[in-house]
Amino acid sequence: MVDVLLSDAEKTFIIHGIQDNLRDDGRGCEDYRHMEIETDVVSSTSGSAKVRLANTEILVGVKAELGEPSSGKPDKGRLEFFVDCSANATPEFEGRGGEDLALEISNMLTRAYDCPKCLDLGKLCVIKGQQCWVLYVDILLLECGGNLFDAASVAVKAALYNTCIPTVTVSQDEGHVDIELSDDPFDVQHLDVTSAPCIVTLSKIGHSHVVDASQKEEACCLARLMMGVTEKGTVTALKKEGSGSLDPSSVEEMMETGKRVGQALNKSLMEVLCLEEQKGKKKEKTGFLR
């Protein structure tokens, strides 16, 4: 979380507005800011996406490479998350300033996706116990304007939706195994990310809670609850942060809000991704690194 200094009067104004379901930018407590999503923005990756949520901007690239499956899941592929905080995003990220935040985001995404029903990683297995597809998900924070976890999860889901994995042919001859990758750019498989989770962060401010907190609202928040939520409302991960406390009734209320908002967010995201895919080459591209 990037620190923003506010006066007591500013904090009081924000807190009282939230209690009346009217935030300083005109939103209600369960409303997200305007979000822009673009896929296929980096040509050197297997899949990519860029998300802009108000002043927060995140770029995600996915690289699919053959590797060994984990010992505990020999018949499944793997997901590896890496987060980098650009020093251009905020002066606080200069040097090693963003390492703790990068690790927090990476760990939360790993926990959110560590659910058998999120992604069918079995389809990424090539040879049981020997070879599988490993998806390296690289997340770059380009600009910080609040609510980094949610924006990162949306960008990750969009990039995975855009990921193309080459078709693999496995042949055996006298005990020797040959793996051949198709070089046809159209002979690929795609992941079904319909059940992949999005992270919803609920910030407790005063006696109320909000989603998609801005930087000013984050400065008024003493405790927040982060949830990995699927399109069916299943909670795949839950984490509490902050020095403030949350009573059981508040947690229950925040979780109900998180599930409701998470379902709507997943539904809207999938609709946008399907619509963009239907446009094909006709879609307007504003990305970079092409």
From TrEMBL:
Keywords: Acetylation, Cytoplasm, Exosome, Nucleus, RNA-binding, rRNA processing. CDD domains: RNase_PH_RRP42 (cd11367). The keyword Transmembrane helix does not apply. GO terms for cellular component: cytoplasmic exosome (RNase complex); nuclear exosome (RNase complex); nucleolus. Transmembrane segments: none annotated. One of its GO terms (molecular function) is mRNA 3'-UTR AU-rich region binding. Residues 32-166, 197-260 form the Exoribonuclease phosphorolytic domain. It is found in: Cytoplasm; Nucleus, Nucleolus. InterPro entries: ExoRNase_PH_dom1, ExoRNase_PH_dom2, ExoRNase_PH_dom2_sf, Exosome_comp_Rrp42_subfam, PNPase/RNase_PH_dom_sf, Ribosomal_Su5_D2-typ_SF. The keyword Membrane does not apply. GO terms for biological process: exonucleolytic trimming to generate mature 3'-end of 5.8S rRNA from tricistronic rRNA transcript (SSU-rRNA, 5.8S rRNA, LSU-rRNA); nuclear mRNA surveillance; nuclear polyadenylation-dependent rRNA catabolic process; rRNA catabolic process; TRAMP-dependent tRNA surveillance pathway; U1 snRNA 3'-end processing; U4 snRNA 3'-end processing; U5 snRNA 3'-end processing. Pfam families: RNase_PH, RNase_PH_C. Belongs to the RNase PH family. PANTHER family: EXOSOME COMPLEX COMPONENT RRP42 (PTHR11097:SF8), EXOSOME COMPLEX EXONUCLEASE RIBOSOMAL RNA PROCESSING PROTEIN (PTHR11097). Component of the RNA exosome core complex (Exo-9), composed of EXOSC1, EXOSC2, EXOSC3, EXOSC4, EXOSC5, EXOSC6, EXOSC7, EXOSC8 and EXOSC9; within the complex interacts with EXOSC2 and EXOSC4. The catalytically inactive RNA exosome core complex (Exo-9) associates with the catalytic subunit EXOSC10/RRP6. Exo-9 may associate with DIS3 to form the nucleolar exosome complex, or DIS3L to form the cytoplasmic exosome complex. Exo-9 is formed by a hexameric base ring consisting of the heterodimers EXOSC4-EXOSC9, EXOSC5-EXOSC8 and EXOSC6-EXOSC7, and a cap ring consisting of EXOSC1, EXOSC2 and EXOSC3. This is Exosome component 7. The lineage of its organism: Eukaryota, Metazoa, Spiralia, Lophotrochozoa, Mollusca.
